[in-house]
Amino acid sequence: MKVEKVSELTTNRLSVYLRCLNELAEKGQSTISSAALARKFNLNSAQIRKDLACFGEFGTRGVGYSVDELREHLKKILGLGRDYRIGIIGAGRIGTAIADYYAINRTNFQVVALFDSDPSKIGKKINKIEVSDVKNFSYAAKRDNIEIAIIAVPAEKARAVLEKIVKAGIKAVLNVAPVPLTAAEDVKVKSVDLTISLESLSFHLSSEPGVEREMKPISRTGRKL
Amino acid sequence: MKVEKVSELTTNRLSVYLRCLNELAEKGQSTISSAALARKFNLNSAQIRKDLACFGEFGTRGVGYSVDELREHLKKILGLGRDYRIGIIGAGRIGTAIADYYAINRTNFQVVALFDSDPSKIGKKINKIEVSDVKNFSYAAKRDNIEIAIIAVPAEKARAVLEKIVKAGIKAVLNVAPVPLTAAEDVKVKSVDLTISLESLSFHLSSEPGVEREMKPISRTGRKL
DNA sequence: TGATGTGAAGCGGTTCACAGCC
DNA sequence: GGCTGTGAACCGCTTCACATCA
Predict the structure, then answer these.
(1) What is the pTM (predicted TM-score) of this model?
(2) Average of pLDDT values for A95-99?
(3) Which of A81, A164, B1, B224 has its CA 20 to 30 Å from the CA of residue B104?
């Protein structure tokens, strides 16, 4: 078993495995091999075994993994043995959509507070949660035991909001504003950026057709991609 | 200049550079060096030069890059010289939030159609766009010249929706449902998964405090992370 | 036999370091 | 002098291949 640092890529895959195991458990399947799991995500089976090997030896040679056992292990590894209290900063479309989503779907993530700076939103209730003034974030974060903050404000305000969050002592941040954000070592910031994804799609749409791509003609030799 | 395949990581960064250049242009800055750009995203400056080198030589030695020129190059590279017509499947919270977002913010992405299977939603207007029955997707996709589809349906329906999209001949898909999806080589599928990101945060929250992580005691030697 | 766990090889992306040019 | 463009070194993740064990 490895004891070194676990890569983000590994933990992301663990989430995916866990979801799949939940489904398998529902269907009543009791064991699964790394190869079968790999096929579902077209991954390499060694990948999966290596990912799991970071945390222990969960399998049985010749058999595979017990669905139930592995599921419990993954839950524990990912810290999903308990719920997390979340505060969302930005009660606009995206912020409220996220709040709605986690109100409806039972997960380990519970939105307990919403913040905005717009006076017309402050005080309004969304999903039984009153929108608070972001000025009181630090106070409310402590009062409500917020452990994870979600930044859902316009791009230009995101940086300032992150600072507030860090000052409030929160160590985990999910940023859905279209800006790359970074914070001190001990604060984990993850970003999700729809526009980057869409631009990646537009790149592919506009580069696929021709294959040959118009560029500065540095070299005049014909070339292939 | 490199002519080999361009990695996804590179194109994602190009999006980030472009946004930054847009801001710089607004501020009136006329040139920027790779080192200055790198500092903003704490990247290595060689990274940036390499990313750009995939597409040409845009800089001037001793000076840096012209903000305006580089901006135009990046737009062209990313295929942002024109608009893209988008259809969203799933007119729930997330689907409509995305539609709203792109209705408000001027980008190269234009939501022109919304689809759902829920009769109570079909026919309703969201942002001047009538929600269509997803059964008619293929027809509507052609009629409306949809080039990019966004999957915003519940996880269990995502796979079937993707098949519909592929059958309609669409080559670019953004999936925001919490399932990993894959399609044929020529169809580009990008996924954005909030729950994976949140679980990555919970992993960090639950592993940071102790450093030493409780695992199967295979080896009994004390070890450090 | 069949599937795990894992060292070793392979591969791709990042960083270094410096030649080349303004 | 300063900054780009780029081969080479480096590093980390993935895949291979096989010893190991139920």
Answers:
(1) 0.91
(2) 96
(3) A164
